[in-house]
């Protein structure tokens, strides 16, 4: 298989399997094309770690080994001025078009070594541009929030809780969507700046209440997918949490609803356990995460094939964000699969964690 | 004997939240007036002022407001190249006890982490009224209490070399002055303890805060 770099190389190249490619400035000489040996790589054993190294092939051509980033390229069929002094005169005369000077190769190589850095810088710039656009989205969401609150304020009721209670189902649904949007936006900030998980002060947080609020936000979405959400357990503990803690129930419940089988319930258990801790479990019934992916599901960008087949949504960032937030709070989220039916098929995907009441 | 027992600051009862909301002066500084639920919170009894930009830095440094909710962008370009961060640094340098809430949609920006670290608490945008109320009420109950102000006062006195026994005596006098609603008395007691003008001004500010909290 040809080395990808060969496509943008000005000089002829040969792959390790002997496949030849023309450069965009210099083509393969006919002698190389006819060569039966194609053992160029055996004559180009690197003796140093230099980016560029010059070798000779038995036919009298120069071989130039190029190291760029983690890729290695072998240019063949060249006559490098001053370095190639042993090429037979007839070969040299018949292959004038193969002549090249070492400085030119160095110049190309220098330019190419800058490419990864430039690509990375460009990717960073574009990512920042995309993220800065988030600010406008946040401004718009603020406006929607203020308008929704103004509508609520006009409803009967002595407190805002009572007023929300008196709102129409459509308005309640709108409020839930806005709240969901706010939490999702805070997730996007953590993607760009993981230290945002530690912004602000930690406050005593009623974990049951936070999960209950998130369950309410997802109930409508879950119902559309014909999935129920049930909460169980008893917890009065109030661990000390950053604002970012909200993203953990969001990610776990969102995933559970997304990947649950129709007609099944997502079960959210929250219990105070010995040792002044609260234990949280989020269980959903569906395809299990394959064995080989269980160690990496909390890594950035990981999506199990099963999740890809069930829904096109999802970026592979959710569990990574949850991990970042959990680490900010000093605990770990674990995954466990429990086979219920035939092995390797459906079962319970269980995400759980324990956090102390005080950090 | 009980008549001569020294009064402790803890003997002053804490105020109910509704009263704290009325007595705590909050300032929101943000170029986008929709980002904070000002109107709604005012209706709920909070004493909130709004500045689209930093209008008077000296007033912020003097501690005229109990809580400053400060945006990072577009609020002080005329004053500092660091915008809101520059203002926060200036406030904290002049008056470390000033409570400032970092309020921004720029939580994704790695270069702004110092802003979040330096503030007493944070509100990442967008926010709803419930979250704002929770945060303000928490700050009022934890930081803006007579006990907390006295903690700062006694710290200043201790750093100034005032012996513990004397501090305890000052505490007794301050409590008695607060109980008889004598605002001037509190200021006079604290003013008589030091000579340094800068420290004196800090103590006077704290005396005013304590008095204001009790509606004096």
Binned, the helix content of chain A reads 25-40%
What's the helix-strand series of chain A?
EEHEEEHEHHHEHEEHEEHHEE
The CATH architecture of the largest domain in chain A can be named as 2-Layer Sandwich
- Which superfamily, in CATH terms, is the homologous superfamily of the largest domain in chain A? Histidine kinase-like ATPase, C-terminal domain
Strand content of chain A: 15-25%
Explained architecture:
The complex is a heterodimer of chains A (359) and B (216). With 359 residues, chain A is of the alpha+beta class. Chain A is elongated. Chain A has helices at 30-34, 89-94, 102-153, 160-165, 169-192, 207-224, 247-258, 305-310, 318-329; strands at 13-14, 20-21, 52-56, 62-68, 71-80, 99-100, 203-204, 228-232, 240-241, 265-273, 277-287, 334-339, 346-356. Chain A has three domains: 5-125, no CATH class; 134-199, no CATH class; 201-359, Heat Shock Protein 90. The longest helix of chain A has 52 residues, at 102-153. The two termini of chain A are 55 Å apart. In chain B, strand 1, helix 2 and strand 2 (47-51) form a beta-alpha-beta unit. Chain B is an alpha/beta fold. The mean pLDDT of chain B is 89. In chain B, helix 8 (164-179) runs antiparallel to helix 9 (183-191). A five-stranded parallel β-sheet of chain B has the order 2-1-3-4-5. The interface between A and B is medium-sized, with 32 and 30 residues.
């Amino acid at each position: 298989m040809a080395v990808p770099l060969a496509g943008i190389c000005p000089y002829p190249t040969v792959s390790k399997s002997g496949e030849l490619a023309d450069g965009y400035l210099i083509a393969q000489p006919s002698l190389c094309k006819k060569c039966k040996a194609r053992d160029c790589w055996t004559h180009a054993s690197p003796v140093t770690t230099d980016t560029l190294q010059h070798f000779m092939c038995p036919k009298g051509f120069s071989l130039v080994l190029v190291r760029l980033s983690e890729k290695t390229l072998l240019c063949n069929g060249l006559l490098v001025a001053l370095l190639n002094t042993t090429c037979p005169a007839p070969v040299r005369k018949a292959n004038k078009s193969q002549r090249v000077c070492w400085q030119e190769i160095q110049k190309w190589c220098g330019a190419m070594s800058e490419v990864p850095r430039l690509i990375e810088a460009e990717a960073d710039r574009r990512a920042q541009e995309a993220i800065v656009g988030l600010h406008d989205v946040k401004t718009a969401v603020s406006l929607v929030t203020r308008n929704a609150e103004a509508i609520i304020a006009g409803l009967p009721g002595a407190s805002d809780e009572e007023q929300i209670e008196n709102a129409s189902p459509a308005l309640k649904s709108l409020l839930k969507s806005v709240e969901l949007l706010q939490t999702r936006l805070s997730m996007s900030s953590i993607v760009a700046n993981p230290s945002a998980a530690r912004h602000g002060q930690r406050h005593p947080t009623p974990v049951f209440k936070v999960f209950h609020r998130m369950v309410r936000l997802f109930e409508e979405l879950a119902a559309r997918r014909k999935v129920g959400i049930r909460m169980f357990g008893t917890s009065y503990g109030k661990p000390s949490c950053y604002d970012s803690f909200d993203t953990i129930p969001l990610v776990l419940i969102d995933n559970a609803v997304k990947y649950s089988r129709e007609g099944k319930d997502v079960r959210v258990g929250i219990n105070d356990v010995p040792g002044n801790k609260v234990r949280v479990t989020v269980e959903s019934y569906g395809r299990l995460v394959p064995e080989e992916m269980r160690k990496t599901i909390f890594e950035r960008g990981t999506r199990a094939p099963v999740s890809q087949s069930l829904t096109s949504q999802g970026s592979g960032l959710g569990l990574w964000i949850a991990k970042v937030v959990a680490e900010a709070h000093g605990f770990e989220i674990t995954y466990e699969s429990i086979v219920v039916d035939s092995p390797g098929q459906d079962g319970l995907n269980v995400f759980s964690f324990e956090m102390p009441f005080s950090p | 004997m009980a008549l001569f027992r020294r009064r402790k600051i803890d003997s002053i009862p804490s105020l109910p939240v509704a009263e704290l909301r009325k007595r705590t002066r909050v300032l929101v500084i943000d170029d986008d007036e929709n980002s904070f639920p000002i109107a709604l919170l005012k209706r709920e009894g909070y004493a909130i002022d709004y500045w689209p930009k930093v209008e008077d830095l000296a007033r912020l440094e003097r501690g005229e407001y109990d809580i400053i909710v400060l945006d990072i962008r577009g609020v002080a370009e005329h004053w500092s190249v660091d915008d809101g961060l520059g203002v926060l640094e200036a406030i904290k340098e002049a008056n470390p006890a000033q409570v400032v809430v970092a309020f921004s949609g720029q939580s994704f920006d790695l270069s702004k982490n110092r802003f979040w670290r330096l503030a007493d608490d944070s509100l990442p945008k967008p926010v709803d009224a419930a979250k704002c109320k929770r945060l303000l009420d928490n700050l009022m109950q934890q930081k803006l209490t007579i006990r907390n102000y006295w903690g700062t006062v006694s710290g200043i006195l201790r750093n100034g070399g005032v012996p513990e026994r004397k501090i305890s005596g000052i505490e007794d006098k301050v409590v008695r002055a607060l109980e008889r609603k004598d605002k001037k008395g509190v200021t006079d007691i604290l003013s008589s303890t030091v000579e340094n003008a800068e420290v004196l001004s800090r103590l006077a500010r704290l005396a005013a805060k304590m008095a204001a909290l009790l509606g004096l």
